[in-house]
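Box S2. Input/output pair 1.
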Amino acid sequence: MPDIMGGQPKEAASPGGVPRVYPPVAKPNPAADPRKMRRIIAEDPEWSLAVIPLLRNLCLQHIIKNFHENPILDKLLPSHKAQVLEKLSTSLPLKVTANLISDEGYWRRCCTQRWGISDVSQYGDSWKRMFFERHLKNIIELFIPDVTDPQTVLEMVPLCRNYVKKLDISQLLPPVKEPQKGDEDDCSDTASDAGFDGPSMDHFDFGILLDKLSHLEELHLVYGVKGCGMNFEWNLFEFTYRDCQSLAKALKSCKTLKVFKIHQSKVDDEKARVLIHSLLDHHVLKELDLSHNIIGDRAARAIGKLINRSNLEKLSVYDNKIRGPGAQAIAYALSRNITLRSLNLRLNRIGDEGGQAIAQALLKNTTLVDLHLGSNELTEPTATALSQVLVQNKTIKSINLSCNRLGSDGGKQLEEGMSHNGTVVEFDIRLTEVDQEGEYCISQVLRSNQDKAGQALQ
């Protein structure tokens, strides 16, 4: 029988007498790589030792796949945590991700997938803040009274209250208008008299939300409907007295509010007074905007009271119906105020009665920097009063008198005042009937003041 080590086949007798032949045994080659000598037969013909995933990666994939059931994140190493956050689905429930994930990269993916390209600078450069502010905004703007369950809003509070600093609500939907019943329905009058007819609210009730948003600083509201098209009705843009009362109560409870704006909502004197009364002791309020409404002199008097009771720095009531007496009330408050820096009264009807009152107030005021009185039916007497302000006031830097009828004589008065002024760097007198010579002289003084201001900054 040949030697096995010699490579010859080996024969042996079987129980039946038939010889068995064994294959030759290869001699070991010390120089060969042992790993290349092994033969592995796998069930998967494409299986290869080179593509076997690391156990670490298998574990991370399992964590990602089952994150909604077992959100393990804080226990991971920083490098492993980054891998998980990069692969996590943006459709995970907010109950899981809201208070657990702070990674800006993840929230950027959420924002981009939902809204496309967005400007995060408007949200303090925080993608997480942007996501929750816009998400809550969408819920409120699509809220239908007596149809949408308020719980859908309340469920969001624990998830977003630490991240929402600003709410910019551009529409508020009214209740669904029920079809008119026929005359045969005799019980309709009875139901109305009993108090069962009509919705329980006219728009979303901010009273259920504002006191729970502990970091809310800005609130912008428009009581109207976007894109109503052929379904336009005036009641779609009606800020009711019931809305006003509930909003005033909500504002009073929101102690962190710094900026409040409500415009294009047909806010009249009565409703404005209710809102302003709720803000009288709001010492953190810095900006109030009641523009594009129908506010008159009664509300202007309330605004004057607010100026002296608060720490307002910016007030905008442009495009309303304020006349001379209302402007006088604001001017009286301005003469005693030490915080207001910007006042915008354009597109009202204050006339020379109000314009002169404000000019007289600026002879005492030492904080106002920006004044806008455009389109207010002002004429030469107001220009004469403001010329004295230009001589004495050393604080104001920007004045806008555009779209008034100051005339050439008024322009000469302003030119005389500006010749003694060294602080005003912006002065808009377009469409005021001031002659070209006056405009040129004023522009020369402005250029000189601007150069001085630029040198001071350097």
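Box S3. Input/output pair 2.
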Amino acid sequence: MEDGVLKEGFLVKRGHIVHNWKARWFILRQNTLLYYKLEGGRKVTPPKGRILLDGCTITCPCLEYENRPLLIKLKTRTSTEYFLEACSREERDAWAFEITGAIHAGQPGKVQQLHILKNSFKLPPHISLHRIVDKMHDSSSGIRPSPNMEQGSTYKKTFIGSSLVDWLISNSFSANRLEAVTLASMLMEENFLRPAESYKKKISSKEEISLSTVELSGTVVKQGYLAKQGHKRKNWKVRRFVLRKDPAFLHYYDPSKEENRPVGGFSLRGSLVSALEDNGVPTGVKGNVQGNLFKVITKDDTHYYIQASSKAERAEWIEAIKKLT
């Protein structure tokens, strides 16, 4: 990391004028949070924007978007609001911790509160997500579904986020709303729950639906934002990668889209993964993209070119994938 950089990495940011979501490279310094556009795997300078942290307030977790449970909201002294989405709970909490530290630098009392925040909500060892889901479906004590109209389709077994939060508290799964929201977002991340509109699968045959359900049923081992080269147009885009085991699959999601379903993915059984040369542009890679690249070749010989944001991150991904091939 450069001098004075407290944390850097990808976050997905809501646009100011048009409320679309875009992955940006963020760099946190003592008094500012800078963000950059990425082109061909490298950040475009000067920065696209900067958030002045002096007098900023931070909200984490932020519940303003039901389909985006991993948000941080920053409100500047001039009341400008920024919504930033991380790729996992751990990453969201790490960013919130560092940003809050930068806002309150030099205020020891605040920094102590931070340490409490850093060890925030962990799922109690005696509660399993499976057990919560079983109880949710229980006819006597479960959550009451309310039919929901969504883009012209009626869904019978749906409920609104706030009623789930109330139910988790009344069943003593959570002590307060903050814990309940965190728990609800865990249920969504692990695919026990899905936003209503993502049920409208554009899939006709039942076999494919059950296949995709099996693919997504594995335990999440690792997730993060990585850049990936497209297959057809060979352009580089930031995707949220999720690695699952039993069965072993690597899926990737478009973080600019609302629905939480993969835009692609492949089985890791029989795949090969390797780091690519760091000097110059390796064969198969389009554009002037170099550094921290790795390649996964699937069993059916499809080549995926992926770029991590550091050597350490690349090594972690390769090791995690190797264990599952």
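Caption for Box S3: The chain has seven helices and 18 strands. The domain at 208-322 is CATH 2.30.29.30 (PH-domain like).
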